[in-house]
């Protein structure tokens, strides 16, 4: 691996609600950014290891070079080489895997010194080699998500286009605002991304309008949304991005447009 001498942007994909497309967005935005010529690292920060599975690793619990091992070493004050555990995917992104060990690590973080900054330390070691690092957060606002928000430059919030999703959004924004105040002054919103949008229904349109109306003043809402598409689910089952699975499909076009918006936000 070579150092690239450019600033690396760290994006946390976060929402304490499960099933809103955090992992899917991490993979497809990551591959989108790599296709645009960037060096990209995806970090699985969820003990359920969905990102790990969608990158094609079928038996994560048998792996030992995972994020859990890296964080454990950092907590113990050991040096770890920057390349430790980094794997590459055929679509041009690197990734750092997770497995169930991360659940125990999250518990031990609670009593660690500087517990909010363990992931930041890990990310700082690899940042010189990448243009973008995306952290796929777990569906909670626990220590690992706080670590991701402490390490990130921006937070991207995937939001499923449903009324119930809006309820959790206030709590998420409150948490992010608190972290901004106490832990990471530089943290900004990358934006709210509406996902699983069924554009045929008026209902979806209403939600989009509502999100823009209620939050658009405070938080950027991406122009592009991600349509509900069975291709997306198929792609992750195959360990691929939508770009490889269905390059001309609506989901691939949507993720390409999202990639352009993220690139336009700059680093
Ligand atoms: P999270 O990481 O927030 O829990 P995932 O990215 O794992 O959410 O998505 C949850 C489920 O929904 C997965 O089975 C995924 O394949 C599916 N999914 C995600 N985005 C879409 C979409 N745009 N259209 C259809 N299914 C989707
Ligand atoms: Mg996930």
Descriptive labels:
binds adenosine-5'-diphosphate; 7-stranded mixed β-sheet; 267 residues
Protein described:
With 267 residues, the chain is α/β, with parallel strands linked by helices. The chain has a single domain (9-265), classed as Rossmann fold. The protein has eleven helices and seven strands. The chain is globular, with a radius of gyration of 17 Å. The two termini are 21 Å apart. Adenosine-5'-diphosphate binds at residues 18-24, 50, 139, 195-196, 226, 228-229, 232-233, 236, 251.
Tell me roughly what share of residues is in helical segments.
Answer: 40-55%
Radius of gyration: 17 Å
Main CATH class? Alpha Beta
| First-to-last CA distance | 21 Å
Structural class: alpha/beta
Q: What would the principal axes of the Cα set say about the shape?
A: globular
Bound molecules: adenosine-5'-diphosphate, magnesium ion
Spatial strand sequence of the major β-sheet: 3-4-2-5-1-6-7
The named CATH superfamily: P-loop containing nucleotide triphosphate hydrolases
Number of helices: 11
The run of helices and strands is EHEHHEEHHEHEHEHHHH
Number of strands: 7
CATH architecture: 3-Layer(aba) Sandwich
């Amino acid at each position: 691996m070579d150092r690239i001498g450019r600033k690396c942007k760290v994006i946390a994909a976060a929402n304490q609600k499960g099933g809103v497309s955090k992992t899917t967005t991490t993979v497809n935005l990551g591959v989108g950014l790599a296709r645009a010529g960037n060096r990209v690292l995806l970090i699985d920060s969820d003990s359920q290891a969905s990102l790990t599975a969608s990158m094609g690793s079928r038996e994560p619990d048998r792996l030992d070079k995972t994020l859990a091992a890296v964080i454990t070493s950092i907590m113990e004050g050991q040096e770890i080489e920057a390349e430790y555990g980094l794997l590459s995917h055929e679509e041009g992104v690197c990734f750092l895997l997770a497995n169930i060990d991360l659940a125990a690590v999250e518990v031990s973080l609670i009593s660690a010194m500087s517990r909010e900054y363990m992931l930041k330390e890990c990310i700082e070691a690899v940042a010189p080699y990448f243009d973008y690092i995306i952290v796929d957060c777990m569906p909670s606002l626990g220590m690992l998500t706080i670590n991701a928000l402490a390490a990130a430059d921006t937070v991207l919030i995937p939001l499923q286009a449903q009324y119930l999703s809006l309820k959790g959004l206030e709590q998420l924004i409150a948490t992010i605002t608190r972290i901004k105040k106490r832990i990471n002054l530089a943290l900004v919103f990358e934006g709210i991304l509406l996902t699983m949008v069924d554009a045929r229904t008026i209902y979806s349109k209403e939600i989009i309008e509502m999100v823009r109306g209620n939050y658009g003043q405070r938080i950027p809402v991406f122009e592009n949304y991600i349509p509900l598409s069975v291709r997306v689910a198929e792609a992750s089952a195959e360990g691929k991005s939508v770009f490889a699975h269905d390059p001309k499909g609506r989901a691939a076009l949507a993720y390409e447009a999202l990639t352009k918006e993220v690139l336009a936000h700059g680093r």
